[in-house]
Design brief:
Elements (H helix, E strand, L loop, with lengths): L22 H21 L5 E9 L8 E6 L38 H21 L10 H28 L1 H13 L21 H22 L5 H39 L12 H17 L7 H9 L20 E7 L5 E7 L4 H26 L24 E2 L5 E2 L1 H7 L7 H10 L30 E3 L1
Antiparallel strand pairs: 1-2, 1-7, 3-4, 5-6
Helix pairs in contact: 1-3, 1-4, 2-3, 2-4, 3-4, 3-6, 5-6, 5-7, 5-9, 6-9
The structure holds benzoyl coenzyme A.
């Protein structure tokens, strides 16, 4: 293990950033740590456990970066890891393209960079809060373990952003680090910053939808911050993306397994009405999908945005796969078609300068990735011999941010009158009856090797272990 990439586990805070060389920063982080732990105790997973079979990040090199073993969650080693530094790295886009990447924060971009890091940091603990009570209704020990894995890693991602704030933003950064523990998901007085992170995650179908659709926004946003000219942010996000892949795997395969079980029940009983048979009907799955997808589309901001144009030009936030784009990486004379509401009120598109359309560019990358999930779930339906299909709703459906915020549209993109929306929205979004049904199925199954009846078992266990492994020891 080379010294520059390996974690120093002799210290209180595992890290590969030579924390021991910076006493001031070390003290700041050590004084934040007890506040983090008391936040974790009061807002983190509420189900008491002895220990959980968890992955812990221990290195960032190519030889493998994670260790698996049973650990008490409170003793999880939340550490600070940045991907390896490329000393020759140059800025890949914007007005500083070609200049050496920044190792410090340039004064003129301080507040924008801080804002981006705070927004990113705010989502991490928010998701842990949203998922706090799910442990009590887990469909299996395997799923329970995956929930906790996601939770501890979101905790580590909070550490990652807090490190950047405390190391590079002085007193303001330290204050922001405290605020990240002070705001809470759904709080009246101090809510989380972005809309989707104040929604509830009250059941496991919502959890899988969240990890599929909302964590996937995380993948795309982290992908743009990985391009940042501010090298410590870039390296931090590069490493976070490794962990993020498992979170989306939990979502993708979770929805696979719900669809598989529903399809089995539909085929076996030759009916769509699987609720009475202990399953989640396909139209309810579609409504949950509609909800989580549309609130996740909001996370990309407005279709046009001067914020994103400024971020790009300054070099703070790039595009998805910036280095694979075949243009000048400055975009000062390019244009893009973005979704819009025309003067006659119809949903359509309009041409704008490419820089202000960058949220749309990223949202489109995200949407095409989401399509791949829908394809795989439809393959499951097809192989069960069923004709029904799931689909992504139109981009204008149920939006609260951007050009469609003031209008209502059907999942097919037809514009609706306000009264009509109120009357028909229960066809497209989960109703109280749907939520009550889904919640009624959420009875815990916490015996080794057993699984709830509304979901199919996974194909494989974790890290080569079987499905019936003792992934979690309950308290
Ligand atoms: N809710 O210019 P606009 C993750 C605000 S998820 C509330 O259109 P901009 C994770 C916006 O802040 C990834 N407010 O958009 C997933 C702005 O306010 P100010 C999280 C919203 O700025 C699962 C105003 O509206 N990371 O990691 O271009 C589990 C006008 O905004 C919303 C990031 O998002 C909203 N949905 O883009 C765990 C990356 N949308 O500045 C973790 C960092 C917009 O006028 N954030 N607003 O006061 C950003 O890049 C940008 O801030 C946004 C917005 C993409 C969020």
């Amino acid at each position: 293990m080379s010294r520059s990439t390996g974690a120093d586990y002799t210290e209180k805070i595992p890290n590969n950033v030579d924390l021991h060389e910076d006493r001031r920063l070390q003290r700041a982080l050590e004084s934040w740590q007890p506040n983090f732990l008391s936040w974790w105790e009061s807002m983190g997973p509420s189900l008491p456990t002895q220990d959980v079979y968890l992955r812990t990040a221990v290195n960032v090199g190519r030889e493998g970066w994670a260790h698996f073993g049973h650990v008490a969650m409170r003793d999880y080693r939340w550490g600070i890891f940045l991907a390896e530094r490329d000393p020759g790295r140059r800025i890949g886009f914007g007005q500083h393209k070609g200049e050496p990447a920044w190792q410090k924060v340039p004064g003129e971009y301080r507040s924008e960079l801080r804002r981006l890091i705070v927004v990113q940091g705010d989502t991490e603990p928010a998701s842990v809060e949203q998922q706090r009570n799910l442990g009590a209704t887990a469909p299996s020990l395997y799923d329970l373990r995956n929930l906790f894995q996601v939770n501890v890693e979101e905790g580590r991602h909070l550490w990652a952003m807090v490190y950047l704030l405390q190391a590079y933003f002085g007193r303001e950064g330290r204050e922001e680090a405290e605020e990240l523990l002070h705001r809470n998901s759904g709080s009246e007085d101090a809510p989380r910053i972005l809309g989707a992170f104040n929604e509830e995650t009250p059941d496991w179908l919502s959890f899988y939808m969240f990890t599929y659709f909302t964590d996937r926004d995380g993948k795309y946003q982290l992908g743009t911050l990985k391009e940042s000219a501010f090298d410590p942010l870039s390296r931090t996000c590069e490493f976070m993306l490794k962990e993020e892949a498992h979170h989306m795997f939990v979502g993708t395969t979770g929805i696979d397994r719900v669809v598989e079980r529903t399809a089995q029940l539909m085929a076996e009983h030759d009916t769509d009405e699987v609720a009475a048979r202990g399953g989640i009907p396909l139209d309810m799955i579609q409504k949950y999908l509609n909800f989580h997808y549309s609130v996740s589309l909001d996370l990309f901001g407005g279709e046009t945005s001067t914020n994103v144009a400024n971020y790009y030009t300054a070099g703070l936030k790039g595009r998805w796969s910036e280095d694979r784009r075949r243009d000048d990486h400055k975009l000062t004379s390019e244009s893009i078609m973005v979704d819009a509401v025309a003067d006659d009120g119809q949903i359509g598109q309009t041409e704008v300068a490419a820089l202000v359309g960058l949220n749309t560019d990223l949202r489109r990358e995200y949407i095409s990735d989401c399509e791949s999930g829908v394809k795989r779930w439809n393959r499951i339906l097809a192989s069960a011999g069923l004709d029904q299909r799931l689909k992504l709703p139109h981009v204008a459906f149920n939006r609260k941010v951007g050009v469609f915020a003031g209008i209502e549209a059907t999942p097919d993109g037809e514009r609706l009158e306000a009264g009509e929306w109120a009357r028909r929205k229960g066809q497209w979004l989960p109703t109280d009856v749907d939520k009550t049904h889904v919640r009624s199925l959420m009875q815990p199954v916490l015996e080794r090797g057993k699984i709830a009846a509304w979901i199919a078992p996974p194909r494989n266990g974790i890290n080569g272990k079987p499905f019936d492994y003792d992934y979690v020891h309950l308290a």
